[in-house]
Specification:
Elements: E1 3-10, H1 21-34, E2 38-46, H2 55-66, E3 71-74, H3 77-80, H4 84-95, E4 100-103, H5 113-146, E5 160-163, E6 166-169, H6 171-185, H7 190-199, H8 205-208, H9 223-230, E7 238-241, E8 244-249, E9 252-257, E10 264-267, H10 274-293, E11 305-306, E12 314-317, E13 325-328, E14 346-348, H11 349-364, H12 367-384, H13 386-415, H14 420-451, H15 455-470, H16 477-486, E15 490-493, E16 498-502, E17 510-513
Helix pairs in contact: 4-13, 4-14, 6-10, 7-9, 13-14, 15-16
Length: 522
């Protein structure tokens, strides 16, 4: 008697419609009874079929790898996946476990060419319907925008109010917006503008609207908010829709910018003139360039030190002793958009840089320890990526299998065994599937390469260490900083006297007491 596992899935938007988990499970049980299968486990989840990494599906793979499972029973093809490439990957992963997939609906369970063709068509239709559903939502929004409607009801830009698809100027807020642009053009920085607005008691949107989450006190403006206003083209009378799109990077949803030619423009009431917007933007970019050019002193740990409050410590120079450089927490009493830091970490640059550099040197100059840590990191990364590794191997098998089927199809076309129309349709489906599998393979290759140190990166790291070792006392500032950046060195101030040094290799969770080292001149 064959053993079987049942898998059921719904997406959140489908739960109240065509499918339900309970009905899927019930139909799968009936199917198992009809073939006298012994059901050893049932897995059900509410998860998008567009995503391959699903918690309960991963449990199915784990069970099939560790226990003999002859059959995976699924109610319908689109319950397993919404993507033809994902179907192929799942099939290959289960094939390694000698587990076959059987569907309650449809004649897909035989190995005949007709069954394979029917399954491919059904998979393509399922994928098409999913794309069509997303397209309907997008098309509806685009239609409203092209009709001159604004899609920003929840949080209209500061300076505007929203009603029935239109933006209206809020006189009180609009005057603040004009003031922000005027101050920037007059030479103020975003930080100074935030301070001026706070000192004048200007209310933020969060101070006036109850459903806005406000983390800080009244009239506290963040410089990033000022910069967002200065970069928002809406204030010139041009609101744009479709500036970004969501995509998945390493399994996570990420927003990326679209080409400006794809944006849809809607005219809205202008608060400032285009000329003033461009002048303010030029001034803002100029401030950023000047900030970089003003770096006249070398700080080895620039951007690598965090205070215990979470703020990045800034690099500064003493006014009384010009040669004395130090790192200091930025969250002082003069910073209005955050609560003052209780620790206010402060340390001489020479002192902390010496501590960190010596600690790094002591570790990396031990080649055996370095190799051990690299291998340890690789093993750890490999353990966390076992699922991705299995998927990658399944993708390669699926690509080989699809290429083989395309070859067979070409032979059938030459022999004339099947009608030309059927062969052409089968070829189109297989070619589409092959493109999706190649894209999935590229994505998984990127995920696996980023997870651990590659042999090429290890060679580069060793070469850099070798160069520094031969002239450690003469190592240039650039070489030192590059090494620390490659090791992703981070320094966290636990309090005013203790720091913790960490990094991916080979520094790991080392706590040092500043008082243990010889004090430098303060």
């Amino acid at each position: 008697m064959k053993t079987a596992v049942i898998y059921a899935r719904v997406s959140t938007e489908e739960q109240a419609k065509k499918y339900s988990l309970s009905s899927q499970l019930e139909e799968c049980r009936k199917y198992a009874d009809s073939y006298e299968y012994t059901v050893v486990a049932e897995f059900a989840e509410a998860f998008s079929g567009e995503i391959l990494d699903r918690p309960r599906l991963s449990e199915v793979f784990g069970l099939c790898q560790n226990t003999k499972v002859d059959v995976l029973i699924v109610y319908d093809i689109d319950r397993l996946a919404r993507n033809t490439a994902h179907h192929a990957i799942i099939e290959m992963q289960l094939e390694k476990c000698s587990t076959e997939i059987e569907y309650v609906l449809g004649e897909y369970n035989s190995k005949s060419p007709e069954a394979n063709l029917s399954k491919s068509i059904k998979q393509a239709i399922s994928e098409y319907e999913n794309m069509q559903r997303r397209e309907r939502v997008t098309r509806g929004k685009n239609a409203k925008v092209r009709a001159g409607k604004v899609m920003t009801a929840a949080r209209p830009p500061y300076g505007y109010s929203y009603h029935a698809g239109e933006l209206f100027i809020n006189p009180e807020e609009a005057e603040v917006v004009r003031r922000i642009f005027r101050l920037m053009v007059e030479g103020e920085t975003a930080t100074n503008i935030a301070r001026i607005l706070h000192e004048d008691g200007v209310l933020t949107r969060g101070d006036k609207v109850a459903n806005f989450v406000k983390m800080n006190g009244v009239s506290i403006w963040n410089p990033s908010t000022i910069k967002n206003i200065l970069n928002n083209e809406t204030y010139t009378g041009a609101w744009h829709f479709g500036k970004t799109m969501r995509t998945k990077v390493n399994g996570k949803s990420k927003s990326i910018k679209k080409s400006k030619s794809e944006w849809v423009k809607v005219e809205v009431p202008a608060i400032i003139e285009r000329e003033q917007f461009e002048s303010a933007g030029k001034a803002l970019r100029g401030n950023k360039i000047l900030a970089k050019r003003n770096v006249k002193w070398e700080y080895l740990l620039r951007g690598m030190i965090n205070c215990s409050c979470g703020a990045v410590c800034r690099c500064s120079r003493s006014r009384r002793k010009k040669e004395f450089l130090f790192y200091q927490c930025t969250v002082t009493s003069g910073t209005y958009w955050r609560k003052p830091c209780s620790e206010r970490f402060y340390v001489g640059a020479q002192k902390i840089e010496q501590i960190v550099w010596e600690k790094v040197m002591n570790v990396i100059f031990d080649p055996d320890y370095l190799r051990f840590q690299i291998e340890k990191q690789r093993i750890s990364a490999e353990a966390g990526l076992s699922g991705a590794r299995e998927q990658f191997e399944a993708v390669k098998l699926a690509i080989t299998d699809t290429e083989r089927k395309l070859g067979i199809l070409i032979d059938q076309m030459l022999d004339g065994d099947f009608p030309k129309e059927i062969i052409e349709e089968r070829k189109r489906l297989l070619s589409s599937k092959l493109r999706q599998l190649q894209a999935e393979k590229d994505k998984l290759e990127f995920v696996l390469s980023e997870a651990s140190i590659t042999p090429e990166q290890e060679d580069l790291l060793n070469q850099l260490i070798k160069n520094i070792k031969h002239g450690v006392d003469k190592a240039s500032f650039e070489h030192k900083q590059k090494l620390l950046q490659m090791l992703k060195i981070r320094v966290v101030a636990l309090d005013k006297k203790r720091i913790k040094i960490s990094g991916i290799l080979p520094i790991s969770e080392h706590i040092l007491d500043l008082d243990q080292f010889a004090a430098t001149t303060w």
